[in-house]
Amino acid sequence: MVEDRTYLLARVFSSSRLSESKWLHMHPPEEQDSSVSNLRNAKRAFDDDNDDLRRQSKSLKLTGNEQQQQQSDNGSLINDIGRDNSITCLLRCSRSDYPSIASLNRSFRSLVKSGDIYRLRRQNTIVEHWVYFSCQLLEWVAFDPVERRWMNLPKMPSGVTFMCADKESLAVGTDLLVLGKDDDSSHVVYRYSLLTNSWSLGERMNSPRCLFGSASLGEVAIFAGGCDSFGKISDVAEMYNSELQTWTTLPKMNKPRKMCSGVFMDGKFYVIGGVGGGEEYDLATKKWTEIPEMSPPRSREMPASAEAPPLVAVVNNQLYAADHAGMEVRKYDKESKRWFTLGRLPERAGSVNGWGLAFRACGERLIVIGGPRSSGGGFIELNSWVPSNDGSPPVWTLLDRKHSSNFVYNCAVMGC
């Protein structure tokens, strides 16, 4: 997350397009002295404890015209502290500041738009998690749970079939993938890029399908199971690399599954539900292992086909599930391989058999998105809870609410 010592720098970037020297002249002398002092103190602190970041940033060299532009900027991003320390500062700025940072000069823009800034953040485990969800057919919004800010994404381009069809989504790296069917009933992937703030057609799966289980870890994601275009239940699994935009077919699962869910936990991928139980995929050995009874129990008897896939999420390598019927939160004990109840979901977490309710991990917190709806209007609420290790019941915090008469159609969390 963002550190206090770079708060000043973040505010400078987001509030002005002027150079640092011009920005200082816009304030009274005592503020100038304080600002200069803060910058110098930041330089001394970064010189002492950020050698690793400095070495990594040296690989981000500018060439050709960019070198000339850098020279015109006095050879650094922030003149007083130098290029290497500048990058160290930028890594700790909020993601929401990066558009303003990119507008300051060519060097900043290259660092942000190339994605290098996010790669360095990932290497140094500096991550912010934002929630992306859609309550309208082609419209997506992003929510920053720390600043509690809303941002609208550009409207998705698509045909009528894709607009009206069921869709599935997943955030991986700096991409948001939305999968569905286009006008000729073939599977299609639309890709939103955080770097360009735009939508484009993405690469299709090697074995296109829907109703799969999926999860992401950094720049890679795994999609397991689902149904193909002929309705056949699949045992296929594929890995997507957002940096390369490529799909790689993995070994097949032990059982075909559809309407399942996926999570990463302890560095391994798990597919849960579909036909009961779950399976673990070890990325090192490339082998699947069945885990009986890993699928969370249901408190109300009804056909599994009528319910949403298991509502599961992982926080700090602990697996949680939402029981939409009993309005309860459960936790999975990895030693006994059993589920036990922790407490209640937020009271306004409404759904229809689990559809329209989002239950997601967002950094170190669980996020629940849902709410009452009516024909004349309604709203959805975003509630969060930070689980503890002692098994205490959830205490939910209302982050915000948003007017909407529709379900939460799709939801994903992007961490970068």
TrEMBL record:
Residues 60-77 have a biased composition (Polar residues). Coiled coil: none annotated. Residues 60-79 are annotated as: Disordered. SUPFAM superfamilies: Kelch motif. Keywords: Kelch repeat, Repeat. It holds the Pfam family Kelch_1. GO terms for cellular component: nucleus. This is F-box/kelch-repeat protein SKIP11.
